[in-house]
Structures are given as structure tokens and as C-alpha cells.
Amino acid sequence: MPESAPDGGFSPVQRRSVSDEVFAELRDAILTGRFRPGDPLPSERELAASFAVNRHAVREALKRLQEAGFVQIVHGGATTVLDVRSSAGLDLLAHLARSGEGLDPLILRDGLEMRRCIGVEAARVAATRATDEARERVVAAAAAYDIDDDTDADRHFWLEVVEASGNLTFRLALNSLVQAIDSGPDVMDALLAADRADLLPHAPLAAAIADGDAVLAARLADEILSQAVDVWASLTDSGRTLDPVTRGA
């Protein structure tokens, strides 16, 4: 039987593991350029001494770094830092968002542009090949913007559009973007405010998908998803810094 929850109704929070801490420190050291592509990391023994942890925790952290595309482990040899731009996948977005250096404005821009590309193409494809049931779910998701207490309406709407497209790679890419968005809620609240408030209504886009009008669906999706890109431009100084409203979030 699970342990009973405290008075607040929540279960106890699990503490972060030692290997998680080591992973995060090494990840940030790579992302910030302390270790550059081609550089060897210190040995397990040296890292364990530096972090004051056992070698098992270091080994687990290094294994995770390799799985994420940050390093290459050669048994009996050095652990070498990789060029993450060539070796990592979309999950790198979430790591960049969680980095101790904070959110890079250019990474934010790139993520918003990718979000727009995926959304526009997903809307176009959904209009051409979605099932009747999927079209109904998209229309229902658009109607949820009118529900005051539905704070996740925007996320649910685009998930339904991507699902309606039937494209698995779109969904996997969206999953990575969602993880990155969740890692920087304050910044993303500012950038996605217009989308979440339904400033440009999503209902006409849902109707275009339901009617099978791929051209209109793509155009409306582009207009809606361009809002966040435009907000990013208004809050940055040529992509170098964020406006104080969002800086440091």
C-alpha cells in the first residue's frame, strides 16, 4: 500500500539523486563552454574526488551524458566531449532550458520558429488526412479557449492538431518543445500570452481543418504561431538580451 499523503493531499517530494546533481553540473559545464568539443573530461576518480561522491554516481552521470549526446565514453580511455550541435537530438532543447546559465534568447527564438514550422505543417496535413474523430477533437479543443479555468487549452489544442496530422515525428518534436517550455514558465508565459488568450482565435483554424481546407489551415496556423515570434523580437535586443520582464526567469 502507498504511504498516506500529508494533510495537504500531496505525496512527499523525492530528493534529487547524487548522480542527477553530477549530471547537471557536467551538462552545464559543457553547454557553457568550460569543456569544449574534443576535450577530455577528468577521469571518474578525479570527478568523484572533485564532487565528493562515489564513482558509481559519476559513472551513472556519464552514462546519461553519453545517452543525451554530450560525450563519448571509450572503455579504458578518456571520456570525450562531443559537439552537441552534431550529436544531440531535440531533447537538447530541454537541457538548454534547464542549464544553470538560464535561457539563451537565440535558443528561445529557434524554438519558437520550430514550433511555428511544426504547427503550420501539422495543420496543413491534418486538413488533408485527419479522421472524422480527430477533426472533432480539434474543434472541441479550440472551443476550450473560452473556458476560463482551462489554463492548458493552448497546449491541448496543438497536441490535437499534431495528433490529427498522424505524423509521429511531429509529435516527438512537439514533446521536446513542451519540455523546454515547462523548464522556463515565466519567460514562456510572456512569449505565449497572446496564443493562450486566444487573441487570434483558434476556432477558424479548427474549422479549416475540419473542412479539409489545407491552404487556409496553414495560413491561419502561421498567423497564430507567428505571434510568439513577434513578441520575442519585441523583448530582445537583436537576440542578445531579454527585456527585464523576462530576463533571468
Automatic annotation (TrEMBL):
Domain of life from the UniProt record: Bacteria
Family annotation (PROSITE patterns): HTH_GNTR (PS50949)
Keywords (A to Z) from UniProt: DNA-binding, Transcription, Transcription regulation
SMART domains with a match to the protein in the record: FCD, HTH_GNTR
InterPro entries for the chain: GntR_C, TF_FadR/GntR_C, Tscrpt_reg_HTH_GntR, WH-like_DNA-bd_sf, WH_DNA-bd_sf
Domain called HTH gntR-type: residue spans: 16-84
Gene Ontology molecular function, alphabetical: DNA binding; DNA-binding transcription factor activity
Isomerase as UniProt keyword: no
Protein name, per record: GntR family transcriptional regulator
